[in-house]
Recover the amino acids of this structure.
């Protein structure tokens, strides 16, 4: 592997001169210096020289690496291609690299620091993205505070240093849209709790709060449909969501429009099974996480902008690294509305 000395000897300059070129400390507005710097870069390329991150870390105090902590449970972290793409684009634009690691649920008794990921235990990265939506182990929070590691939390509701979707605002706008279409019997359809689920994500409460606020502003009573939990037995779990939806739609006082926290396409299927037409008999709007899902089945939806969340998370972390003593205000990412025709004005027979 070529070194700075190898380049200096071939060009006929000092090692310090070569180092200044790669550190951007030369005054290349002078033609002689510019020609020399260009020759140094040409020789470095021919020799296959690559700067070492260790040397940069000693010189700048920065490694050029950021870390991301995930949960080993896929549902507990943001795992979305659009989010990853946004992160990667921003990293590339800034010349940074990302290191991933996992951290499990409650850490075992004993030396908890030793059980934390290496990128947390050691000075391996300049800052962290905490991509852990539920029940982050206390040991991780404690070591971040103790070691003053700059960290931005992904999809967590906190007073500072977090990036998350504006779920309350999105539910408020979606419900207002259904009201503007003339619907009075609007149902917010929750998702059934999973087996062994000990807590719900903050977004569930925020979306419910946004829906209820819009309904009360319009002088209407909110209707929230809580579905039975998913059975623990696998055979009973198959088709559970669809069955719950069909039962809801067969009620005598069923809603004329639904806002689903997820599963809007399954709701359209359930409507067909219940003998209802979408949108003539039932308007359907849903929250959704898949950017390309409309290519399969179109449904009016509120889409989480994961690409934007990924880019903003890196920007916020870099800003926090520059001024770690000043907490960053929470950043709320607006959601997108995609309309494909599953919402319309209610028929006279179904509106009240």
């Amino acid at each position: 592997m070529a070194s700075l000395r190898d380049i200096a000897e071939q060009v006929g300059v000092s090692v310090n001169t070569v180092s200044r070129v790669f550190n951007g400390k030369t005054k290349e507005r002078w033609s002689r210096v510019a020609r020399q710097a260009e020759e140094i870069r040409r020789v470095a390329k021919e020799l296959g020289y690559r700067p070492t991150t260790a040397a940069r870390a000693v010189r700048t105090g920065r490694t050029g690496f950021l870390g991301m902590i995930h949960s080993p449970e896929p549902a507990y972290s943001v795992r979305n291609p659009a989010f990853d793409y946004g992160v990667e684009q921003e990293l590339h634009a800034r010349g940074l690299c990302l290191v991933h690691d996992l951290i499990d649920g409650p850490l075992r008794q004993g030396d908890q620091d030793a059980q934390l990921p290496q990128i947390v235990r050691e000075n391996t990265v300049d800052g962290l993205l905490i991509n852990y939506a539920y029940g982050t182990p206390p040991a991780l929070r404690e070591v971040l505070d103790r070691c003053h590691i700059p960290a931005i939390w992904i999809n967590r509701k906190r007073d500072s240093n977090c990036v998350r979707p504006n779920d309350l605002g999105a539910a408020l706008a979606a419900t207002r849209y259904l009201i503007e279409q003339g619907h009075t019997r609007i149902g917010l359809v929750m998702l059934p709790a999973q087996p062994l689920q000990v807590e719900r994500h903050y977004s569930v409460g925020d979306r419910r709060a946004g829906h209820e606020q819009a309904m009360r502003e319009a002088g209407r009573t909110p209707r929230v449909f809580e579905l039975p939990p998913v059975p623990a037995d696998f055979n009973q779990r198959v088709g559970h969501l669809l069955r719950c939806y069909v039962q809801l739609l067969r009620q005598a006082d069923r809603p004329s429009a639904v806002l689903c926290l997820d599963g809007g396409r399954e709701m359209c299927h359930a409507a067909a099974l219940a003998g209802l037409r979408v949108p003539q008999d039932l308007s359907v709007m849903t929250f959704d996480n898949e950017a390309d899902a409309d290519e399969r089945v179109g449904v009016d939806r509120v889409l989480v902008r994961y690409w934007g969340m990924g880019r903003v998370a890196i920007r916020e972390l870099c800003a926090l690294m520059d001024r770690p003593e000043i907490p960053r205000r929470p950043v709320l990412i607006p959601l997108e509305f995609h309309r494909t025709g599953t919402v319309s004005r209610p028929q006279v027979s179904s509106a009240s």
